[in-house]
Design goal:
349 residues; alpha/beta; inorganic pyrophosphatase (n-terminal core); Diaminopimelate Epimerase, Chain A, domain 1; 7-stranded parallel beta sheet; 6-stranded mixed beta sheet; 12 helices
């Protein structure tokens, strides 16, 4: 069980404290990251796992949704982020680290399976569920924190210097969670991390080509869904796209083909908030909510209403609704109740 389930809250520590622990501990280590993994989640877990292995430690990274990893991200996870079912017999972690995971429920099926010793994250969250917690909400990506941690360790143990695969994983983390360095959380620290990776021999062109391999016919179908399905609300400042299972089947798309639409829906002139809702095939009453915004609207507040969260301009959640109209109505109501936009026209579109 995790600490918050037991009703306990851990302590806050510094990144230097975590570096000290990882440099001196010889415990078998398990690294957890959130379900429905993205590039930051996978890159952070893979980079830390490889670093510990280079230092001679036994370390594994697991994810509850390895079967849902997008094809373009598999170069980060293959052979390094595995299902718990594939852990070797006899593996008994003495140290459990959760990365890029604000709350334990975001671990999916792995929630409550292990006590979390160390939490490393960049999301503002409701709990310090690790026994020891480092949360830096000013970091553009969890990968930025992991990058700083690894180089801090490398100053004292050269075995921690990142290899080429670790460098790629860290850069992919930065790129995917910072919107290619365009989002508001990007700072000089972010660019310093990137510079260190370049100095380490980063092939940034190769990483970008794998993250954005070109549009397939299925990706074009996803764009057709968006162009034909987007609806404007709140005087045009809110743009919403609701994709149900029938639409997915009609166009032959899966969720991994729809990821780019989260940003596309917001990147329309005059739009402050983009809403994407996708019906889930494993439970049709559940809808995956993704929100993007300009700095004028904090979408993490809206997603928190549904038990989710994230960042000021990019957040997500899962919500339950019996129909597409109900799902959208719930989100628009939460947006209006947040007081950030005048959505008095939302019911009429």
């Amino acid at each position: 069980m995790s600490n918050d389930i037991e009703g306990l809250e851990g302590i806050e520590v510094t990144l230097a404290d975590i570096a000290d622990e990882l440099l001196t501990s010889d415990a078998e280590t398990l690294i957890l990251c959130h379900a429905r993994p993205d590039g930051d989640c996978l890159g952070s877990a893979a980079a830390l796992t490889r670093t510990l292995r280079q230092m001679g430690r036994t370390a594994y990274a697991v994810n509850a949704d390895t079967d849902k990893i997008q094809n373009r991200l598999r170069f980060l996870s293959d052979g390094i982020v595995i299902s718990a079912d594939d852990l070797p017999a006899g593996f008994a972690p003495g140290l459990v680290i959760a990365v890029d995971t604000a709350e334990t429920e975001l671990l999916g099926d792995y929630d409550g399976r292990w006590n979390v010793d160390i939490k490393i994250d960049h999301h503002v969250s409701r709990s310090l569920y690790g026994k020891r917690n480092f949360v830096d909400a000013g970091a553009a990506a969890c990968g930025q924190i992991i990058c700083e941690l690894i180089y801090m360790m490398a100053e004292r143990d050269c075995r921690a210097l990142p290899c080429s695969a670790t460098i790629e994983a860290l850069y992919a983390s930065l790129v995917t969670d910072s919107g290619s360095f365009r989002y508001g959380g990007v700072s000089g620290r972010t660019h310093i991390c990137a510079a260190r990776l370049f100095d380490g021999g980063l092939d940034h062109v190769g990483v970008h080509e794998r993250l954005s391999p070109g549009r397939s016919e299925t990706d074009l179908s996803a764009l057709r869904i968006a162009l034909g399905g987007m609806k404007r609300f709140c005087g045009g400042r809110v743009n919403a796209l609701v994709i149900d299972l029938d639409t997915k089947a009609e166009y032959g798309v899966e969720d991994e083909n729809l990821t780019e639409l989260n940003t596309f829906v917001r990147d329309i002139e005059g739009v402050d908030v983009g809403i994407t809702l996708k019906q889930q095939s494993d439970d049709p009453a559940m809808w995956k909510l993704s929100m993007r915004s300009t700095p004028r609207v904090d979408v993490s507040v809206i997603c928190a209403v549904f038990g989710g969260g994230g960042h000021l301009r990019a957040a997500g959640a899962m919500l339950r609704a019996e129909s597409p109209d109900e799902a959208l109505r719930l989100v628009l109501s939460a947006l209006e109740e947040s007081g950030q936009l005048d959505c008095s026209d939302c019911e009429n579109g």
